[in-house]
């Protein structure tokens, strides 16, 4: 009888511990499995590990605001800004010139490669908790 009771308790404990490793939900409503990195929100510039349905070991991601904008708003994704300066503003004109220069330049691919490398480095630093 005791063996049956111990077996039953062991099965219940295993079942309960499986339920403890619940998933998390990110700021967009996506389900994130236990142990994976995700952005819990409301801040889109914070990355955490999903640990038993709770955000743990979070790291903030810092981005410089847009250089040419006096007024700006952070958009839905981290480091994505919207310039709120009026169209006739000098800063807005400088921003447009800067963007058109890079769109017409062959250096755009070079710039994208650097951004990709920076992103990979940041992800690695956050993932391995070096930051």
Automatic annotation (TrEMBL):
Cellular component GO terms held in the UniProt record: membrane
Entry superkingdom: Eukaryota
Signal peptide residues on this chain, from the entry's feature table: 1-19
Coiled coil: none
Entry keyword set: Signal
Listed PANTHER family: INTEGRAL MEMBRANE PROTEIN DGCR2/IDD, INTEGRAL MEMBRANE PROTEIN DGCR2_IDD
Protein name: Integral membrane protein DGCR2/IDD
Species in which this protein is naturally found: Ceutorhynchus assimilis (cabbage seed weevil)
């Amino acid at each position: 009888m005791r063996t049956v009771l111990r077996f039953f308790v062991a099965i219940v404990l295993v079942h309960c511990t499986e339920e403890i490793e619940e998933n998390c939900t990110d700021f967009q409503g996506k389900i994130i499995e236990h142990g994976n990195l995700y952005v819990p929100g409301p801040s889109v510039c914070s990355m955490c590990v999903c640990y038993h349905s709770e955000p743990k070991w979070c790291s903030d991601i810092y981005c410089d605001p847009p250089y040419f904008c006096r007024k700006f708003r952070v958009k839905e994704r981290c480091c994505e800004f919207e310039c709120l300066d009026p169209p006739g503003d000098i800063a807005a004109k400088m921003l447009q010139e800067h963007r058109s220069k890079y769109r017409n330049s062959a250096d755009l691919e070079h710039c994208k490669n650097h951004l990709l490398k920076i992103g990979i480095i940041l992800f690695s630093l956050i993932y391995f908790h070096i930051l």
